[in-house]
Request: fold
Amino acid sequence: MSTAQAQAGMTARTSRGMAAVLAGRDKRWTSKLLFAGPAVVASIAYMDPGNFATNIQAGAKYGYSLLWVVLAANLIAMLFQALSAKLGIVTGRNLAELSREHFPAPVVYGMWGISEIAAMATDLAEFLGGAIGLSLLFHIPLLAGMVVTGLVTYAILTGEKQGFRPLELIIGGLVAAVALSYVIEVLIAHVDWRAAAAGTFVPRLQGPGALSVAVGILGATVMPHAIYLHSGLTQRRARVRNDAERSKLVRFSNVEVLIALTVAGLVNIAMVIMASGAFHAGHPDVAEIETAYHSLTPLLGAAAAGIFLVSLLASGISSSVVGTMAGQMIMQGFTGYRIPVWMRRLVTMVPSFVVVALGLNATDALVYSQVVLSFALPVPMIALIVLTSRRDVMGQFANRRGVVAAAWIGTVVTLALNAVLLLQTFGVAIPGM
Reply:
């Protein structure tokens, strides 16, 4: 295995297979699966325990009315994940590295600080979610669940030494478990499909409280660390010799993003639908993961409650792995310094232990972490738009005007929602709300 292959985490056979597809020598559709993986790994960030918390609140309190927020957030996520993947493919660098190279030092330090806060908020949601799942499933204390989650996460991360494919297969299997769980949950729940369709395509907010949940959904869906991570996953995955092969690789990536994030979006929609069908009519006050679990048994049966916990556990463990990978990439990209995985895992566990030690409500902490993420989100979004629109960075792959316009609209929507939430937090009256 060559040094370049080792750095990319691939075998010589995989490298040859990719080269044959890109050169047009291998036209079998199954061979294109060699390029699958980055978007699948990134997609787990869109199905993490933070999504569970915000989607349960959205469905229980507001029924199907906030499904349009989930759809809009997922469309924004698709665009930015595709841009992030393209950045890595075309430049061979990730977003954090290019930000350090092209932006002034004060901007870079600010970006790094905000991104580290976002990484901690992300890890809080993911780590607590896995711990809650273990705690409820095996009837153990939450602190014990946190320790087990940390150990399992670290064990999976050590598998990265064997190459990217084993890690991708593990995460892909956990993604499949979450998706299958919610297919079953929707089949069990009593769903008003006409109301669900209206909620998906007709925008409305039922009061100021709905806005807070909507911002939380946005923060839980479009994830800052996933935007950073995707460019790193694609930057050295396949070796390209010219722009024709690079263009083909970008097309493969776009298809994978479309498929992976469509699955993630459907899972999020299913979460809201399940919560609405199970809780909205008689239990709109259900706002916590633990309460949702205990309420599902009498409402939908023990099977529904058990499946809910399995999906939460799979989501928490897999997203915690991905969050640690992203945190490593962010630190290394902005500072050029890489710390051991075990140290990164240990440091990012601290906020979760503080939340539990102080006796704070775990689900509330999950929701607040998503609001924090929504405020950090514009930083990588703006940096990504700027870098992928520059011809000196991207060459002929620089964004076209339509893509730039769509990306800025997504960013402005995010900023607007955050501004309204901030004004509400400080008691400023907003006309029409």
Residues 243-280 form the longest helix (38 residues). The two ends are 61 Å apart (CA to CA). Residues 388 and 398 are 5 Å apart (CA to CA).
